[in-house]
TrEMBL record:
It is found in: Cell inner membrane. Its main location: membrane. Keywords: Cell inner membrane, Cell membrane, Membrane, Transmembrane, Transmembrane helix, Transport. GO terms for cellular component: plasma membrane. The keyword Magnesium does not apply. GO terms for molecular function: C4-dicarboxylate transmembrane transporter activity. Belongs to the DcuA/DcuB transporter (TC 2.A.13.1) family. This is C4-dicarboxylate like transporter. It catalyses: L-aspartate(in) + succinate(out) = L-aspartate(out) + succinate(in); (S)-malate(in) + succinate(out) = (S)-malate(out) + succinate(in); fumarate(in) + succinate(out) = fumarate(out) + succinate(in).
Length: 98
């Protein structure tokens, strides 16, 4: 039975990768639904902490984009990299990429 579950999981993942985008998430939900309803496997609890962290990051980046803060950060990064062009490799690790 393990191999049937694994085969179903891999099939859903490969079809989702083929279509890409939102289809990957939808097909993941379809795979969980099939495993739950047809095979009787109880789904686990959703990772609420991870989902809230993703929500916070998306909200912060949207706020930066809407207020022009992201453009300002990119300008500061450009000035920093131009001023210290000989040390760019160590600085590039701390500079946001736009």
């Amino acid at each position: 039975m393990f191999y049937v579950h694994m085969l179903l999981l891999l099939a859903v993942i490969f079809v989702g990768i083929r279509y890409g985008g939102i289809a990957f998430g939808l097909l993941g939900g379809l795979g969980v639904s099939i495993l739950s309803f047809f095979f009787g496997i109880a789904p686990g609890t959703p990772p609420i902490g991870v989902m809230l962290i993703i929500l916070a990051v998306v909200a912060a980046s949207a706020t930066l984009e809407a207020t022009g803060g992201l453009k300002l950060l990119v300008q500061y990064a450009e000035k920093l990299l131009r001023k210290h062009h000989l040390k760019w490799f160590s600085l590039v690790l701390f500079v946001p990429i736009h």
